[in-house]
Amino acid sequence: MYDREKLKELIRQHALKFGEFTLASGKKASYYLDCRQVTLRAEALPTIAAGMLQLMKQNPPELVGGMVIGADPITAAIVTLAGLQDKPLRGIMVRKEPKGHGTKKFVEGPYNEGERIVIVEDVVTTGGSSLKAIEYCEAVGLKVERVLAIVDRLEGGKEAFAEKGYKLDTLFTVEDFGINVDGGQ
Ligand SMILES: O=P(O)(O)OC[C@H]1O[C@H](OP(=O)(O)OP(=O)(O)O)[C@H](O)[C@@H]1O
Ligand SMILES: O=C(O)c1cc(=O)[nH]c(=O)[nH]1
User: Fold this and answer.
1) Which residue CA neighbors atom 8 of ligand 1 most closely?
2) Which tens digits make up the pLDDT trace of 127-160?
3) Where, by residue number, does orotate bind (predicted)?
4) If you ran DSSP here, which 8-state letter would residue 156 be given?
């Protein structure tokens, strides 16, 4: 089910844009990966989920999830695929701001304190968004095991996770798309 070459082509075709962009970290960039263009597409999302489930095969966690909104379709797809394979798995979503009413939660979903979670993400640049998700997950008592993402832009995220003791694994790096670390082709 995981067809890496097909997924790479879909990302290249639909998500990769060149131009002037400001990133979540405030950094400027000459290219952008609009991953929603693939994570909300039937021919790509199941493949992303299959690739990530494969990466978790050796040590499946109880939970997957990450920072809204990039992580959300990925989380839902992994949970769906696990369900179709009769594997137990639950998902969570981490809010950027706590909900101001109702439960006032940062972390939404069917989790229990002490459970193991793999953080998922679409794109990693500095890693700041997922580090925030990790912080909020740990604050509610979850044990973060590692981080998985679709694409690593190779701009320090992997090192930032490593510094805190987390390993980052991704389906692709920008080099798979012929982009070097400075954003050139
Ligand atoms: O590794 P980082 O430097 O944190 O950058 C990557 C983050 O930026 C994007 O999210 P964005 O903040 O654009 O938010 P959105 O998912 O809510 O659109 C992307 O989905 C990652 O979460
Ligand atoms: O760093 C970011 O904000 C970022 C980079 C990118 O390529 N794609 C994205 O969604 N966010």
Assistant:
1) 24
2) 999 999 999 999 999 999 999 999 999 999 999 9
3) 125, 153
4) S
CA 86 / ligand 1 centre spacing (Å): 31
* Res 184 pLDDT > 70: no
Helix (H) or strand (E) holding 50: helix 45-55
Where do we find the tokens 């109702």? Answer: 102
Other Cβ atoms closer than 10 A to 129: 24
84 lines ligand 1 (CB under 6 A): no
**Alpha-carbon gap, residue 152 to 148, rounded angstroms:** 10
C-alpha–C-alpha distance, residues 135 and 137, integer Å: 6
Give the class (CATH, top level) of 4-177. Answer: alpha beta
State whether the beta carbon of 125 lies less than 6 angstroms from ligand 2: yes
Residue nearest atom 4 in ligand 2 by C-alpha distance: 23
List the domain boundaries for the chain.
4-177
Name the strand (E) or helix (H) holding 163.
helix 157-163
165 CA distance to ligand 2 middle (Å): 23
